[in-house]
Amino acid sequence: MSLLNKHQGALERLAERGRSRSLLKAHGCDFSSNDYLALTTAPELRLAAENALKRGVGMGAGGSRLLRGNDPEHEALEEEAAKLFGAERTLFFGGGYNANLAMFSTLPQNGDLVLHDSLIHASAHDGIKLGSAQSMDFRHNQVEDAQDRIRQWREQGGTGRIWLACESLYSMDGDQAPIKELVELADQHDAFLLVDEAHATGVLGEGGRGLAAEFEGRENVISLHTCGKALGASGALVCGPSVMIDYLINRARAFIYATAPSPLVAAIVRASLQLVQNQPQRRAQLADLVSHANAEMERLCGQKGSGTHILPFLIGDDKRTMRIAKALQETGYDIRGIRPPTVPRGTSRLRIALTLHASKADVSSMFDVLAEEIDLVPS
């Protein structure tokens, strides 16, 4: 019996259920990336990288931040980002996954409760599993349900701190969290609010500072701004009170034992943050494209859009979703199908991401093709 049989069998069962994954090359018009402002190829960021190399910035850190990997570029980025986002301190991580892993596994303590939206990102779930706090979810975007869950937990003897957690813009549904109401709930219960701004940073809020921008700097609000989506680079910035940043530096294994992010990338992120502030026309252009796409999806395909740059097109069946996605890719539109466990069972969908790599004409022609494929591909 081969040592590989068990894993091969598991892969075959995934394929039978239409859930097998594979790596696909980027091809066709971009409707799948998170490069919302088209900054990954911006000449300004290329120039920033060239200038950083010329002034001696290293491509690699050579070690963890607590050893020899701490670089002036990391510190400059963190200082500038804190001023931009209105936070007391920030801490730069290699990516959003590591940052969420660090926050959720480290900050909530034994006896505390992490109360999270039911659609919170997988990285938050993984961090919670590594931590010592209890966890519970509340119905998506339902603040009253969160209130009920807190009451139930207290009635059952819960005495610790409560950590409310949400995304500001949900990556698979494209809808926004009720941030103001969640802040009020946190205040009411002396709780912390952890906000993942991954898909809002650079795009939404005043100056592209995210949907929780007006609450940054409060001692009970901690936010995560990823740098690999609209900012066009990589990494992530955790923003919050100085004591929380120091606690992560001292206790978060995902920070302590990880090689520091590239100083060159830190230099590029610094330039990207400035670019987002100096070129508001990019956000305006994307907002115009969003309005057009939402209207076209409803007009041509009969589904109402999310109103944001993330447009889920619900299909339901896993296999049909992937067949339609493949047909669109073959026609020249890079759209990916999303299936369980990333989304709940029975809600497989096309995740249509709007970026400045596509024009209004691209959007209209894509929805024309999608409308045809819906009729051609059987349920």
From TrEMBL:
A Pfam family that the UniProt record links to this protein: Aminotran_1_2
Cofactor(s) required for function per UniProt: pyridoxal 5'-phosphate
Cross-referenced InterPro entries: Aminotransferase_I/II_large, AON_synthase_class-II, PyrdxlP-dep_Trfase, PyrdxlP-dep_Trfase_major, PyrdxlP-dep_Trfase_small
Residue span(s) of domain Aminotransferase class I/classII large: 29-356
Swiss-Prot/TrEMBL keywords: Pyridoxal phosphate, Transferase
Designated name of the protein: 8-amino-7-oxononanoate synthase
Organism: Pseudovibrio brasiliensis
